[in-house]
Amino acid sequence: MKYVDEYRDRDLARSLGSHLHRLVRRPVRIMEVCGTHTMAIFRHGLRSLLPPEIRLVSGPGCPVCVTPAGVIDAFVELAGREGVIIATFGDMIRVPGSNGSLATARAGGADIRIVYSPMDALQLAARQPEQEVVFLSVGFETTTPTIAATILEAQRTGIGNFSVFAANKVMPPPLEVLMQDPELQVDGLLCPGHVSSIIGADAYTFLARDHGLACAVAGFEPADILQAIIALVRQVQAGEPVVENCYPRVVTASGNARAGEIVRAVFKPVASEWRGLGVIAGSGLALRSRYERFDAATRLSVTVAPSREPAGCRCGRILKGTCRPVDCPLFGSRCTPAAPVGPCMVSSEGTCAAWYRYGGLAREK
Predict the structure, then answer these.
(1) Which residue in 42, 172, 220, 259 has the fewest CB atoms around it within 10 Å?
(2) Residues 166, 137: contact at Cβ < 8 Å?
(3) CB of 139 closer than 8 Å to CB of 62
(4) Which DSSP string do the residues of 210-222 spell out, in sequence order?
(5) pTM of the model
(6) CATH annotation of 1-314
(7) What three-state secondary structure class fits 321?
(8) What's the rounded Cα separation, in Å, for the pair 312 and 174?
(9) Domain boundaries in the chain?
(10) How far apart are CA 128 and CA 123, in angstroms?
């Protein structure tokens, strides 16, 4: 396991950890929404620096994990069609659906390419005009602007064999749903730095105002995360919940105006299903009518069937923060990174993957 003392800011991190021990006077339960935060916390061994009064709970901030099984099944079915090339980020390849994964489809002969940006998929379409190239668009606000820009470029250049399977989601609506769940009791929220760079810190104001939830926007270095936890503890103990921007070098109050304009021009908000949370109004994005020709689901008549969770898998409850990976009967036995049953074990931002890789089981008993 990698601990903080292997990193450049180890002395600062230790100092912040010691400050937390002196500061905390009551139990404080904090949810880190972002899967990148979850991985960073485990990778840097930050839990070892926290006083026992502070409990961290992982939330639904992994876009791959919250994509329902029915959508994964649609991806796999589409990959099996003649004349279709699937372009996707690498995280999606091994995510299991009801009838296998994209990896099993590729092993069966499907043409599936890993790309590093949606623009790579558009360039692939330009090079192979006889094939239909479909980009699997899964992500939160961080990646959506680049997808919108790619669609605008496809329209400008007239590339006709490119389409997008839009499964994008936005973060504020599920947070509203989570905070209304009586089973979830949290005092503070560690807000995602990269999503916040697009939507701005003010996007979380309703959580402090309406739910009395302390909020802190955090970066991803050990000191960033610990400073945000300190801010949350101070808010909770003072009984003064606000949204505190602890990542001002990247995040502003209002976010990236140009990115927001591009997204609003191309996409419209729609209801969307989240694994573990159900259908949430306004939490998904669909292409506006003027860009419908780039909508793979419409263009290729793709049907998304109702989702079916794998028997025994508690990924949905883990995403809600009401269950730990160790509470799942499949964790570490039938479900491992080499043979994942649910997406939380296979995604690079998945909670189960973090626990398994960095020994969360041993530290959380």
Answers:
(1) 172
(2) yes
(3) no
(4) HH--EEEEE-SSH
(5) 0.91
(6) 3.40.50.11740
(7) coil
(8) 24
(9) 1-314, 315-360
(10) 9
Dihedral angle of Cα 348, 349, 355, 358, to the nearest 10 degrees: 60
Distance CA 99, CA 46 (A): 38
pLDDT of residue 8: 53
pLDDT value at 2 more than 60: no
Looking at residues 72-95, what average pLDDT do you find? Answer: 96
Asked if 323 contacts 317 with a C-beta cutoff of 8 angstroms, the reply is: yes
pLDDT band at residue 117 using 50, 70 and 90 as cut-offs:
very high
CA–CA gap between residue 325 and residue 150 (Å, rounded): 37
Contacts of residue 261, defined as CB under 8 A and 6 or more positions apart, other chains included, come to none
Here the tokens at position 197 are 């760079």
Task: Evaluate if residue 329 carries a pLDDT over 50.
Answer: yes
CB-count exposure of residue 299 (10 Å: 0-12, 13-18, 19+)? middle
User: What is residue 311's predicted lDDT score, i.e. its pLDDT?
Assistant: 87
d(C-alpha 188, C-alpha 242), whole Å = 10
Q: Indicate if the pLDDT at residue 203 is higher than 90.
A: yes
* CA gap 72, 44 in Å, rounded: 32
* pLDDT tens per residue, range 27-37: 999 999 999 99
Q: Where are the alpha helices (DSSP H) in the chain?
A: 10-23, 35-43, 63-66, 69-79, 102-107, 118-127, 144-157, 172-179, 193-199, 205-211, 222-238, 257-266, 296-299, 315-320, 343-346, 351-358, 360-364
Arithmetic mean of pLDDT, 277-283: 96
User: Which range (65-79, 127-141, 302-316, 324-338) has the least confidence?
Assistant: 302-316
Which amino acid, one-letter code, is at 361? Answer: L
The H or E element spanning position 270 is strand 267-274
Q: Are strands 278-287 and 267-274 parallel, antiparallel or unpaired?
A: antiparallel
